[in-house]
Structures are given as C-alpha cells and as structure tokens.
Write a structure and sequence with these properties.
alpha/beta; six-stranded mixed β-sheet; four-stranded antiparallel β-sheet
C-alpha cells in the first residue's frame, strides 16, 4: 500500500523568527591550506527545519560539528540559546549539548548492546536518578515515537539500514532535545525508506516542537522537510531561500541541485 505523506503547508511569514542558533564569520582550515569554512554566517530560528546543501567537502558537516564542539573552529562566533559556545566552560557546554540531539550518518549504535541498552545507556548517562521502571518507560516512549517499539530487544546487527536510522533517532529523542542536527539522515537508504525518514523528521518537529538543521544531498528529503534552504559554496553561504525559490534561482550552479 502506498504511504500517504501529509505535510503541513509552509507559513513562512507567520513563523517564529526567534534565533536559536546564530553563527557569524565561522572559519575552519585543516592542515596548511585546506580552508573549508571561510566566513559562514547562518541562523536557525525556533521551530524551523533548515536544510543545508553543498557539494561534498563544502563544509556542511564541519559546520554542525562546530556547533556541538566536536570540531573547534579557527575563528568566528556560535551562539546557541544566546550562549557563545566557543567561550564557555566544558561543563557549561555539556549542559547545552544535552539540549541538542545529533543524528550521525551511521546511526552510531553500540554493536554490543541491544536496542533497549543503547537507549538506556544514553538516558542514564545524563539522568542518573531515574528508576529502572522510569528508564524502561522512556525507552519505550522513544521507540514508539519512531514506530519501532517491537525492536526493543534486537541487536544492531539484526536491524536494516532504515531501522538503524530510526533507532539512532530514538536515542536522540530520549533526552527530549530542543534542537536536532541531522547529518545525512537518508544516505544509503532506498527511496521508500528515505521518504519514511523524511516524514519522521516532519512528525518529530510538529510533535516535539524541535528546531533542526538537516545536512543532506537528498533533494526529495530537502523538498519534504525544509522550511528554508541554504547552499554552501567555497566556504560561505552562497544562496538562501525556500525550495521553490532556489529551484528557480537565476544562478545556474544553485539550480543544478534541483535538476
């Protein structure tokens, strides 16, 4: 049976324009002369799904890894929840990280742990005072949110690529983040499963009221999920707009993503 996709109409002008992430003049060079970011300026508004496009090596993943401190930039400012994350202590950064979910390309599950154990480990690492019953309740709720409650006792080796993505997302959701950073959420998945993951991203936004940055090469995912799209080129933001606006952009290079 063909899955029905329900997407709420975009209401750009009515959206909350409160910035939740603000990046200014971000630079990052690897080695002597591999300048990946050359002055990125980027804003994520509350309640927004922002898609970042760019060719391989353009710095998309580097940008979001800088946000959570996985990569240290050479220069610039990153404000998250009005805090400059480049100028705070490690403990303060950890407090902010708990409020940010990061979905890696691989799902990044622990192979030696069951699905239940993967989710419980993440939860108890940050909330040590929960009882066993409370942990189990949170684990099942997170799995139900991604439609995989029946997989709770499975091992990662028993999961398909799409299931691993969903479980990785459940593990992200279990801490109830306010921001989610998606790094290529549909990479390696077939068309139908990619569409299901894109729909799940939308469902989570509407149910959990999250704000998200979505790194993707998948234009079907971008079209379904994006409230706004930015395009990285040569280390800076080259273009910005809705899917429909950029699809008709006068810049041939920008339009090439949509063909």
């Amino acid at each position: 049976m063909e899955e029905k996709i329900h997407k709420e109409p975009k209401k750009t002008k009515e959206k909350d324009q409160t910035p939740i992430i603000v990046i200014k003049d971000l630079h990052k060079t690897f080695g002597k002369d591999n300048a990946v970011l050359k002055g990125v300026n980027l804003t994520l508004n509350k309640g927004e799904d922002l898609v970042v496009l760019g060719r391989s090596g353009s710095g998309k993943s580097v940008t979001i890894k800088c946000i959570v401190g996985l990569i240290e930039p050479d220069k610039g400012e990153i404000k998250v929840f009005d805090e400059n994350v480049l100028n705070i202590s490690k403990s303060e950064l950890n407090e902010i990280r708990v409020r940010i979910g990061f979905l890696f390309q691989s799902g990044a599950l622990y192979d030696s742990m069951s699905v239940r154990e993967n989710l419980a480990f993440t939860l108890t690492k940050h909330k040590r005072d929960l009882s066993r019953e409370e942990v189990d309740k949170e684990v099942m709720e997170a799995l139900e949110n991604v439609g995989l409650a029946e997989a709770v006792e499975k091992m990662p080796s028993e999961l398909s690529g799409g299931m691993k993505k969903r479980i990785g997302l459940a593990r992200t959701l279990i801490l109830k983040p306010e921001i989610i950073l998606y790094d290529e959420p549909t990479t390696g998945l077939d068309t139908i499963t990619s569409r299901e993951i894109s729909q799940l991203i939308l469902d989570i936004k509407h149910k959990q009221k999250t704000s998200s940055i979505i790194i993707t090469h998948d234009m079907a995912c971008a079209k379904m999920t994006a409230d706004r799209i930015v395009v990285l080129k040569d280390g800076v933001i080259h273009a910005e707009g809705t899917y429909e606006e950029l699809e008709k952009d006068e810049d041939e290079w920008v339009r090439s993503f949509f063909q």
